[in-house]
Predict the 3D structure of the following.
Amino acid sequence: MADVLLQAGSLSLSLRPSWGGRVVSFSHEIGGDVLLPVAETTFHPDNWPRAGAYPLVPFHNRVAGARCQFGGREAHLSPHPSSLPHALHGMGSRLPWTPGARSGEMAQLLLRRPGDRIWPWSFEARQVFHLDPGGLTVTLHLANVDDVPMPGGLGWHPYFPRPISIRDTASVGWPVQDDYLPGSGPVSRDTLKGHTLYLAHWSSVVLDLPGGPCLRMRDPVGLPHLVIHQPPGPFACVEPVSHLANALTQPGIPDMGPIAPGDTMTSRFRLDVTLEPLPAANGRHDRTTAHGQGLPGAACDAPT
């Protein structure tokens, strides 16, 4: 299956439907890479490339013990080798998607999955990418095509190249435990530190790629949570998501529907890409390079 290519002004976007509906490259003609490009030539569903971006469907992050129950049905999720005994991210990023409608600077990717023992609810998912000269708008849809209510969530998992400076406007978050399950919360954003942050109540994130483009993730719809993951290495992740990690095992499945039969959950966000400084925003900087050293400044913040 061929890649799907979009071009708008100085921006280029490449999608690979067969590799879990991934973005494999996103770049600016002058500024360089917006996302860390995928270099791998083969795809392993459980050892995916740490590059590009992929959809988080029908949940994100860990599910404790790889089990959850809802409405009299039990999901026997597959524990991930890197997060045993927990499940990690929804199966949508491991399955082949198919190209959908295409017009001008817009492309859609589609997935349909029947219910089974692993996830006992049938669903359809759709990613819609709108590229324009100023950036990218991503819209995610999750439709319940089963005959009973279904829990569900959405998100997007990009890999930004480092060095990078990140400023988020989240106001609350949760401590992250050693197994990456969330601790008790919410607590004030200012009390949280570490390579991984589980945040919420955000409106924008400014990302400075020194020597490259300035980025602003903004206007989240149906994505009140935010994961920032900056392990040692060449990438940093800033993931807009609909729910907290492990929400599937919590009473009331917070922020995960349920989605009624025939209904659709929709989420959306915007990623601005510019070579000009962005307006400064209140928030907190987490400055890191590939070697964990602080950056000298944030070039994407316009002086005030």
Observations:
- Residues 45 and 94 are 5 Å apart (CA to CA).
- Residues 4-288 form a domain with the Beta-galactosidase; Chain A, domain 5 fold (CATH 2.70.98.10).
